[in-house]
Design a protein that fits this description.
Blueprint: E1 2-4, H1 10-19, H2 36-43, H3 47-57, E2 68-70, H4 71-80, E3 94-97, H5 101-114, H6 131-155, E4 160-163, H7 164-169, H8 171-181, H9 203-222
Parallel strand pairs: 1-2, 1-3, 3-4
């Protein structure tokens, strides 16, 4: 399982792992509220049947099945699909996080405001810097990280922590680190040639990051907080 937090490049990582041909196809199958058509097609509306059949069509030739999950997915299954919970228990968890919290908050606040979660998607609203939205985004990210840490502790999980920045800087090295963690030999790789997604950062994101960093520096010096 890829334990993800939004705006950490989780879709990019999922596609890269899928493209090896040996690490399953770890996409967000646990987001059941957005998987109605897939659940109907594979499980005839039943989540347990859906999950069982999903594994037959999304498992690599070497027997590896993977998926990506956000805290909200995990909580939804625990609350509304309890019978499915044991089936998503994972013996190997990759925890994807980001060092640059400002950039992550910018990315999240901007995606929420524009409803453009992927590169190439048209904005539903032109982005406009909003300090309150930035603070809310940063707080929400902190909550997501804390929630995953609680889940790891509760389930006795020791995840492999992968940092977004390290993954971008040396993707091949990170993939090899993940392969070693999953006990997969590179000889099992057979690239699939899947199309990847593009990075969304732009001049607007950089300007927002500059403004938010200035604000945080000012707060750190004065001790004031935004109303």
């Amino acid at each position: 399982m890829i334990a993800a937090i939004p705006r950490t490049g989780s879709t990019h990582l999922s596609i890269k792992l899928w493209n090896t041909g040996a690490m399953g196809a770890p996409m967000e199958y646990t987001n059941l509220s957005n998987r109605d058509r897939m659940i109907q097609r594979l499980g005839r509306g039943d989540s347990l049947t859906y999950w069982k059949r999903l594994k037959t069509v999304r498992t690599s030739p070497n027997g590896v099945f993977g998926f990506k999950a956000f805290v909200s997915d995990y909580r939804n299954i625990a609350a509304n699909h309890e019978a499915l919970l044991p089936m998503i228990e994972s013996d190997k968890v990759i925890y994807l996080v980001r060092k640059d919290r400002v950039a992550q908050a910018v990315s999240y606040a901007k995606a929420v405001q524009t409803a453009a979660w992927f590169s190439g998607v048209e904005y539903k609203k032109e982005p406009e810097y909003d300090l309150k939205a930035m603070l809310n985004a940063e707080n929400w990210i902190n909550q997501q990280e804390s929630a995953w840490e609680e889940i790891f502790q509760m389930t006795g999980t020791s995840p492999l922590r992968i940092y977004y920045e390290d993954f971008l800087a040396d993707t091949e090295k990170s993939i090899m680190e993940i392969a070693k963690f999953l006990e997969i030999h590179p000889a099992e790789f057979h690239p699939l040639g899947l199309q990847d997604i593009e990075k969304q950062s732009d001049q607007i994101s950089q300007e927002w990051a500059r403004k938010f960093t200035e604000y945080k520096n000012t707060v750190g010096q004065s001790g004031d907080i935004a109303a």
